[in-house]
Design brief:
alpha/beta, ATP binding, binds adenosine-5'-triphosphate, Osmoprotectant transport system ATP-binding protein, transport, single chain, AAA+_ATPase, six-stranded mixed beta sheet, ATP hydrolysis activity, binds magnesium ion, 10 helices, four-stranded antiparallel beta sheet
C-alpha cells in the first residue's frame, strides 16, 4: 500500500549550520516525486529524515498520519525501501544476501528468501544467476539494479531512491529510469527520487521539489516548474534546456 508523507516545519542543523529550514510538505500516496537541487542543498538529509536515520531538531514527520518519532527507527526502516546514494551494497555479502537483507532481519526463512531473491532479480531485469555473485563483480548499472532490488525486497509502500542514476551512461540510466517508473506503478508505491538530473526529473515525475540551501524553493508539476522564475530553478533548468535545444538544432 502506497504511503502518505507529511512534513511539518522540519528543521535540522548539522555541524552548527542549518541544513533543512522549515520544510512543510505533503506527499499524497502514489506519487512519483523527484527531489532535486544543487550539491549540498539537503536532498540526502531529507531522505534520511524520512526513514529516521536522522531525527529533525524540530518539526514532525507523519507517515500515514502517524508521527514517525513514535516508532523505533529500525522497525520503521523495514517498511521503507531505501537505495542509498552510491548504492552501498554490503561488499562481503553475495548479491542474493544483499537483496534479502531486510527479509532476513524480519525472520524470513531460507527458502522464502531464495524465492524472493529470484523474483526481485526478475523485477529489475537481472539474470537469476547473479544471486551468487559478489558486489565487486557488478558493473555500475548492475549494482544500481541490485540496490533497487534490495529496496523493493521488503515490499515497501514507500521507495526512497538517492541518485540511482549517478555514474551511469545515458542509455543505462534511461533503461533504469524506465524500470523504476514501471515498478513504481506496478507495485503501487509512493516514490521519492533524488536526482541531480533535471531532465530525468521533468520527464518522469508527477511532481518536482527543488531544494536550495536547505529551503524548499519549488514544488510544482514539471510544466509549472519550467515557467518558475526562481533563480535556483532557472540555474538547474538552463543547462539541460540548452543541451536539448542544441540537439534539436542538429536534427533539423
Ligand atoms: N554529518 C554531517 N556533519 C556536518 N554537516 C553535514 C553532515 N552531513 C551532511 N552535512 C551537510 O549538510 C548539507 C546537506 O547535505 P546533503 O548530503 O543532504 O546534501 P545533498 O543535497 O544530498 O548533496 P549531494 O547532491 O552532493 O548529494 C551539506 O552542506 C553537508 O555538508
Ligand atoms: Mg546527496
Amino acid at each position: 500500500m502506497a504511503v502518505t508523507l507529511e512534513y511539518e516545519r522540519i528543521n535540522i542543523s548539522r555541524g552548527g549550520r542549518p541544513v533543512l529550514v522549515d520544510i512543510d510538505l505533503v506527499l499524497p500516496a502514489g506519487g512519483l516525486v523527484a527531489l532535486t537541487g544543487a550539491s549540498g542543498a539537503g536532498k540526502t538529509t531529507l531522505l534520511r529524515i524520512t526513514n529516521r536515520l536522522l531525527a529533525p531538531d524540530s518539526g514532525r514527520l507523519l507517515i500515514d498520519g502517524a508521527d514517525a518519532a513514535n516508532e523505533p527507527g529500525p522497525q520503521l526502516r523495514r517498511r521503507i525501501g531505501y537505495a542509498a546514494q552510491g548504492v552501498g551494497l554490503f561488499p562481503h555479502w553475495t548479491v542474493g544476501d544483499n537483496i534479502a537483507a531486510v527479509p532476513w532481519l524480519n525472520g524470513m526463512e531460507r527458502q522464502g528468501r531464495d524465492r524472493l531473491v529470484l523474483e526481485m532479480l526478475d523485477l529489475v531485469e537481472l539474470p537469476q544467476s547473479f544471486a551468487s555473485r559478489m558486489p565487486a563483480a557488478l558493473s555500475g548499472g548492475q549494482a544500481s539494479r541490485v540496490g533497487l532490488a534490495r529496496a523493493l525486497a521488503a515490499r515497501p509502500g514507500l521507495l526512497l531512491l538517492d541518485e540511482p542514476f549517478a555514474a551511469l551512461d545515458p542509455e543505462t540510466r534511461n533503461e533504469l529510469a524506465d524500470r523504476i517508473e514501471a515498478l513504481h506503478k506496478a507495485q503501487g508505491l509512493t516514490t521519492l527520487l533524488v536526482t541531480h538530473d533535471l531532465a530525468d526529473a521533468l520527464t518522469r515525475a508527477t511532481r518536482i521539489l527543488v531544494l536550495d540551501g536547505g529551503r524548499l524553493v519549488a514544488d510544482a508539476t514539471p510544466a509549472a516548474l519550467v515557467a518558475d522564475p526562481h533563480p535556483a530553478v532557472q540555474a538547474l533548468i538552463a543547462s539541460p534546456l540548452d543541451q536539448a535545444r542544441r540537439l534539436v538544432r542538429l536534427t533539423e
